[in-house]
Amino acid sequence: MSSVVEEFGGWLTDFLPGDYYENYRTYRWDLALRRDYQRAAYEAGWLQPTWPREHGGRLLGLRDAMEVRLEAALRSAPKLPNIAGPNVAAPGIRWFGTAEQVDRLLVPLLRGDEWWALGMSEPEAGSDFAGLRTRAERDGDVFRVTGHKIWTTQAHQSYWCTLYVRTDPEAPKHRGISCLILDLHSPGVRIEPIRMASISDETFCEVFLDDVEVPATNLLGPLHGGWNVAMSSLHHERQMIWIMNWVEIQRGLEAARGARDPDVYAELGSLLADAEALRATGYRALNNELAGRPSPEADISKLLGSVTLQRVWELAAAARGPGSAEDPDLLFERQDALAATIYGGTSEIQRNIIAERLLGLPKG
Ligand SMILES: Cc1cc2nc3c(=O)[nH]c(=O)nc-3n(C[C@H](O)[C@H](O)[C@H](O)COP(=O)(O)OP(=O)(O)OC[C@H]3O[C@@H](n4cnc5c(N)ncnc54)[C@H](O)[C@@H]3O)c2cc1C
């Protein structure tokens, strides 16, 4: 174990309550603890390990940062209460924000004082993000925005939203999009939470926008350059998502291990192999990145990680037998895993990308 992972491990042990693992089933939903964890991780430089100290990091290299994230996941460190903030909005603000935007927005975001929502999907534009219809027209010092977003996680609890809007309807689809920083308390914004089937506290919302004024100074990145802002912001999370999937897969494998049924046993073997393939793919991506080579593995590990995660929790349920439906934790894991093949790019879209861009197959 590297010294930096040891240092992180010691810090985590000091942070966690003494009965954390014993009472993990309760602590995993403890919002106050999760908020404290984010603030403490920011202050200690573990939140964004590759970033400088003032932005929640300690300038670690990519390899150390990955090992720290892996250790955090392996030890079931508290889940960040508003993942879209540090993992998606923050990289976008850092790379594309003006000095004023960085000064005003980044620290409250990283400390978890101001939550962020991600306003990409619309009822007619999910996988086809570039087809979004929410319109923004420049009117003096403001943009006037009208449209409708959906699946906007935690919008009802958030202060800000990175809102993707169409600013040039004449341009080819992905060249006419801009990213605006929307204050969700602005007049004309109506937020409606969507009732969830799962017990997750990451509630989906619909966001209705009726002639909302957004100051022109809240444009993030270049005008009509929102496609790049979106892709760069998501890149950060996509590179790390396999770690979360891999650790959850290990927990699912553990839950399925007692199986006696030969069919369950055979599937367990196949899943063990897929979990190893996922880990190897994650490390290959890291090596490519360190060597400055293109790294197409994120598309493979997104697909492999999410599909394996679903299979593993279904197997854990099969291994448990009829009693599995009575276990709320197992039910939650199965429901949670269902979402993994949808967010951040559905499996069908990932397969299209792999087929066309990686394997060079003709477009279907
Ligand atoms: C847990 C979770 C959190 C989310 N959080 C957010 C958020 O905070 N902000 C946000 O903006 N969005 C969020 N989303 C929405 C997510 O980005 C979309 O659900 C996703 O992009 C898919 O879009 P859609 O639901 O409109 O499905 P659609 O795009 O309508 O797809 C429906 C089905 O058709 C398939 N399909 C579509 N196009 C093709 C094609 N070309 N080839 C083959 N098959 C195709 C899809 O794979 C899918 O099975 C979240 C989703 C989940 C599950």
UniProtKB/TrEMBL annotation:
Its cofactor is FAD. Residues 117-212 form the Acyl-CoA oxidase/dehydrogenase middle domain. PANTHER family: ACYL-COA DEHYDROGENASE, ACYL-COA DEHYDROGENASE FADE29. One of its GO terms (cellular component) is plasma membrane. Residues 32-113 form the Acyl-CoA dehydrogenase/oxidase N-terminal domain. Keywords: FAD, Flavoprotein, Oxidoreductase. Gene3D superfamilies: Acyl-CoA dehydrogenase/oxidase, N-terminal domain, Butyryl-CoA Dehydrogenase, subunit A, domain 2, Butyryl-CoA Dehydrogenase, subunit A, domain 3. Residues 225-359 form the Acyl-CoA dehydrogenase/oxidase C-terminal domain. Belongs to the acyl-CoA dehydrogenase family. This is Acyl-CoA dehydrogenase. GO terms for molecular function: acyl-CoA dehydrogenase activity; flavin adenine dinucleotide binding. SUPFAM superfamilies: Acyl-CoA dehydrogenase C-terminal domain-like (SSF47203), Acyl-CoA dehydrogenase NM domain-like (SSF56645).
